[in-house]
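Look over this record as teaching material.
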Amino acid sequence: MSHDLMAHDLNMRTEYLKITLLICLVSASWLMTPAHAQRRKDRDKQEVKEEGVLTRLEGESMAAEGMKFIMKDEPDRALPVFEKLALLSPQDATTHYLVATALIKLEKYDDAINASKKAHDLDKENIFYSQQLAELYAKRRKYAEAAQIYEKLVAKNPENIEYGIELAAVYVFADQFDKAIETYNKLEKSMGVTEEITHQKQQLYLRQNNLDKALAEGKKLIDAEPGEVSYRVELAEMLIANDRIVEAVAPLEEALKINPDEAQAHVLLADIYRRNGDVQKCNQELKQVFANPNLDADPKIRVLSGYLTMLKTENEVTEAVSLARQLSETHPNEAKATVIYADLLTRQGKFAEARQLYVKAVTSDPNVFQVWGAIMQLDGQLNQPDSMLVHSEKALELFPNQGMFWYFNGTAHLMKKNYKEATSSLEESLKMIGENPQLVPLIHAQLGDAFNGVGDHDKSDAAYDLALKADPDNDHVLNNYSYFLSLRKEKLDLALKMSEKLVQQHQNNPTYLDTYAWVLYIRKDYKKAKEFLEKAMLDSSGVSGTIVEHYGDVLFKLGERDNAVAQWKKAKRMGETTELLDKKIATGALHEQ
């Protein structure tokens, strides 16, 4: 039990209010001065009213009215009633107690202290007045004053455990740990060893850096209830937390003798073996935990997450995958378990299987945006724009302000050549991403492609320029920007500079060599273009029909007509199906746009 639970909430003291109401209704002396009471008796119980003095019925009526407001949780209406009572009967402790009660409800604690102190000073023997004032002092951190009152309450009512608990709490708040421990010890003598008090004492000993006494308290709790497994686990946790790892093994093994299915004991043993680098023993403990479907998934997930940080070899990763699979199968509706399994499969390069699991995870719990991001990342890895489009649209329904999801959506549209939709989504992503230095250049690069696709060359060039300003070596931009400029036959000096830089950095990349050659071709440097196209064609695995067609065009310009036609036919066989290519083959001549 924490001190917060031990300390009573001043706003919820309904029992005291009931007692006060009872006092209001039944105590005859409560609102009457002695003179008034004698006069009432002398006049044969006839009720009279004098200036400044309430009759019994009037006092009871006002008190009942005020209590009615308190019970209806309308302290603002009760307060003026009680204040009037206190003004008319200033020597009556109950009236001040009621004023304090209303002020507490209104959270006016300093004013409540003044009223409560009046009640206490008028009747120091009333435990309700004392307790109210003590609680208010504690609330306002006047711990010394609160302790004085609780000490008296404990002395007068040693059988009341609540007062001892409150006194110990006040000592703790005042950093008087020794007095708090002494108070708990006295409570323990009358109550016996209890979990709540033992835990409080342990925390105090730990705050005093007295680990041995804290451990002794834990052992005392085990001795009191030797069949309770959790106490042995708690002792082990304390030992582990204080780097006394070796000592923690014994209580954990004892716990497992009592209950072989105690998950936390297996988890802690696995963690100990993990710390010692004993992966095999760690695996053995984890397997026992993971195989039990009746155990919660959370401790398994926690220890497996820690276990993943120690993996070094591929064999260890394979073991971890096996454990993750077991965890996922044992807890099929636990999204976190599924995600861990998917993460490991991604690490192994099994992208399709991993994506399937991520999709399963968001079906169970769609509110984790990182998992949606992982799905779309794998859509890209698998080169599946249709899936990326579907997943990004679903994710945007849940997270419309996630710029990365707009980026994936725009990328999917771009891959599908939906250029108008791509520009819209990518521009939206740019608004959401802000100033992210890693992502913004990527978005500008994609926007360059998309704007080129819709024929807005000014915006396309501007986007490419921004991308290169942030990342001058961006391969994608250098290639596409220079190639599109060559197709438009514009800014050919810039196109040459960019494509030349590209082939200097990637001397054997067929695509980049082709781009450079095509810029040379547009600039009518056919001989040099041929040289780089032939270099591009050395890598047969990277040669496309487009490269072969370009090679044919260059050969034609160099007067090698028959060889050019042969290359165009080869490009056709490789899958090139453009209208211009068919015309070139049919006529044996170039047909340029």
Residues 1-52 have pLDDT under 50 and may be disordered. The two ends are 83 Å apart (CA to CA).
